[in-house]
Specification:
Elements lengths: L7 H18 L6 E2 L15 E5 L1 H4 L10 H6 L1 H6 L2 E6 L3 E2 L11 E5 L6 H13 L3 E6 L9 H7 L12 E2 L11 E2 L7 E4 L4 E4 L14 H16 L4 E4 L23 E2 H5 L5 H13 L5 E5 L8 H4 L8 E3 L22 H17 L5 E3 L8 H5 L6 H14 L3 E5 L20 H12 L4 H11 L36 H6 L4 H14 L1 H5 L1 E5 L6 E8 L2 E8 L5 E2 L9 E5 L8 E2 L4 E5 L1
Parallel strand pairs: 2-3, 2-16, 3-6, 6-11, 8-12, 11-13, 13-14, 15-16
Antiparallel strand pairs: 1-17, 4-5, 7-10, 9-10, 17-18, 18-19, 19-23, 20-22, 21-23
Helix pairs in contact: 7-9, 13-17, 14-15
Bound molecules: 1-O-alpha-D-glucopyranosyl-D-fructose.
The site of 1-O-alpha-D-glucopyranosyl-D-fructose has 14 residues, from loops.
Length: about 600
């Protein structure tokens, strides 16, 4: 890794000259420019790095094998070192854990396995001392079936909360109201004998959907969010938010698989009228505060962004699914993978950033989260040096225009788990995808291949802190096995190894904060048609950084005109030679 000193004064004097040179000699003529960077937001969350913690797997402080809030508090300095200013916690409210906390029984209390409200207050305060804000995961499309709201709702057809969930009568033959398949497999309707009706669940039967048509429901979720805002959190990640509005009529859809069902996503995602609810939520929660909101927006594409973010939008940012589904044409079927080209990945960033910029919105950059495979397996070709691939992806994540979201373990270079049997897996969605594949006629081997590639457990294995037993995650038995490579890939060992993935992340985070063009400079894609390199220019006033990332395991050459007159400020692998990139090498030049 090399890093030259900042020479801004010299650079300012020669900037104009260099620009002229670059324009004259550049071979990067296939460039696509999108914005001059001036209108970009300057809120604290535009300028920071966000980090996702899967609470159950981060750090266990009491030896029960389950991560907890005190564990997180004890490792805040790790996050500080990475330049993190916002920490998104996966749900840590009271929950029966049918979906690891995404089934909330009580929004106002902490799950006992994770700690107490005092622990949470301490975490918020300790984080604040380090300039870190805690971001809460708000799950409002559904609750747990153990939530008091649902218990009351299911008790009869005429109680105060009878209309708080989505209830519907059976078809004449007694079967479910529609043929919709839940996102986790099986019918999206569950029969309840007390009411003699079905209730809708977009996810598990243990996760009944709330009825947002009912103003009392909207007021209740607003109250929850404001309660947490008043505690001083820095923002909200809005879970599965595109599903909250259902169509006016429940109708069967055209089956999309041999089970005769149709995925609920295609029937309910982003239903017209959803934005009215979300504008109401924004006015009651977000407006007038300095928190940020980021919506998990499966079903919202780049062209829809104008309604979701920016001046007329409902959130500050949205997580789009275009990139993570680049190889998955149908989320229900993990056995059907799509070939993709580097051009597709580049287009995703180009389109999303362009659309976000056009409406004065902001883009959250992410390559991983707790539902996704590890990015090394997801976006990089097989073979070659794992650490080099991790650093190449880190460069993309931390120098793209937008707020980067690091998934825990990504900064250590984690890869997917590939356990031999479906019984080794914990995640309920993984098990259901496997069963679905067998039902569709795929062999056990084919179904396991899908599991190895897409299972959510890959991003949920315990965080690896050191090379002691259980990677220092717990003194007890970890709820999910620690990845066997922990003796090499762990925080402490990587801290000691000069050229580790972790130290590269730390250096990149520091570089980013010292170079404003990398934070909110404009974004211009270069070498657009090159299928081996992702390359772009970030500019802010006189400052200009050029990023080049080799996505292949080969040494390759590129037209040196892109970086003529510039100096290298970062190289992921050894020295940088202009015009050449080593296998998976990433370089940043500045002029
Ligand atoms: O995920 C919502 C969502 O759209 C996911 O179904 C995603 O497509 C899938 O997990 C990919 O495998 C959110 C949470 O992120 C997820 O962890 C929860 O299980 C889900 O909501 C239900 O709350």
């Amino acid at each position: 890794m090399t890093r030259a000193r900042d020479k801004r004064s010299v650079r300012a004097c020669i900037a104009l000259l260099l620009m002229i040179c670059v324009v004259t000699v550049t071979g990067c003529n296939a460039s696509k420019k999108i914005k001059d960077g001036e209108k970009s937001g300057k809120e604290w969350w535009n300028r920071t790095i966000a980090y996702e913690i899967y609470v159950k797997s981060f750090k266990d402080s009491d030896g029960d094998g389950i991560g907890d809030l005190n564990g997180i508090t004890s490792e805040l300095d790790h996050l500080k070192e990475l330049g993190v200013g916002a920490v998104w916690l996966t749900p840590c409210y009271v929950s029966p854990q049918a979906d690891n906390g995404y089934d909330i029984a009580d929004y106002y209390n902490i799950e006992p396995a994770y700690g107490t409200m005092e622990d949470m207050d301490r975490l918020i305060a300790e984080a604040k001392k380090r300039d870190i804000r805690i971001v809460m995961d708000m799950v409002f499309n559904h609750t747990s079936n153990e939530n008091e709201w649902f218990k009351e709702s299911r008790a009869g057809r005429d109680n105060d909360k009878s209309d708080w969930y989505i209830w519907a009568d059976p078809k004449e033959d007694g079967s479910a109201p529609t043929n919709w398949r839940s996102i986790f497999g099986g019918s999206a309707w569950e029969y309840d004998s007390t009411r003699g009706q079905y209730y809708l669940h977009t996810f598990l039967p243990e996760q009944p959907d709330l009825n947002w048509e009912n103003p009392e429901v909207r007021a209740a979720v607003t109250d929850v969010a404001n309660y947490w805002k008043d505690k001083g959190v820095g923002g909200f990640r809005m879970d599965a938010i595109t599903y909250i509005k259902k169509p006016a009529e429940y109708k069967d859809g055209t089956p999309d698989a041999g089970d005769g069902m149709v995925g609920i996503h295609s029937m309910t995602a982003n239903t017209e009228g959803i934005l009215d609810y979300l504008h109401e939520f924004k006015a009651a929660v977000r407006d007038g505060s300095d928190i940020f909101t980021v919506g998990e927006a499966n079903g919202v594409a780049a062209e829809d962004l104008k309604d979701w973010i920016g001046e007329n939008g409902v959130f500050d940012m949205v997580f789009e699914f275009g990139l993570v589904n680049i190889d998955l044409p149908n989320e229900t079927n993990w056995c059907e993978r799509r070939d993709w080209k580097l051009r597709d990945l580049k287009s995703f960033f180009l389109d999303s950033i362009r659309e976000a910029d056009a409406v004065g919105g902001w883009f959250p950059v992410f390559l991983e989260n707790h539902d996704q495979p590890r990015s090394i397996n997801h976006f990089m070709p097989e073979g070659g040096d794992r650490e080099a691939k991790a650093k190449a992806l880190a460069t993309l994540l931390l120098t793209m225009r937008g707020t980067p979201f690091i998934m825990q373990g990504e900064e250590l270079g984690y890869v997917n788990v590939e356990w031999p049997s479906i019984d080794d897996y914990d995640d309920i969605s993984t098990k259901n995808h496997y069963t679905f594949a067998l039902g569709e006629g795929y062999s056990g081997e084919e179904a396991m291949e899908g599991v190895h590639h897409f299972s959510r457990d890959s991003s949920r294995t315990p965080m690896q802190w050191d090379s002691t037993e259980n990677a220092g995650f717990t003194t007890g038995t970890p709820w999910l096995p620690v990845y066997p490579d922990y003796t090499v890939y762990n925080r402490n060992s990587e801290k000691e190894k000069k050229d580790s993935v972790l130290n590269y992340y730390i250096a990149l985070a520091a570089l980013r904060s010292e170079h404003p063009e990398l934070e909110d400079g404009s974004y211009e894609e270069i070498l657009s048609e090159d299928e081996r390199i992702v390359a772009y220019v970030r500019k802010d006033g006189d400052l200009k950084a050029t990023v080049l990332i080799n996505f292949t395991g080969e040494e390759i050459s590129y037209d040196v005109g892109c970086v003529k007159g510039a100096e290298c400020i970062m190289s992921s692998e050894g020295m940088a030679e202009k015009g050449v990139l080593g296998p998976f090498q990433a370089v940043i030049y500045e002029e």
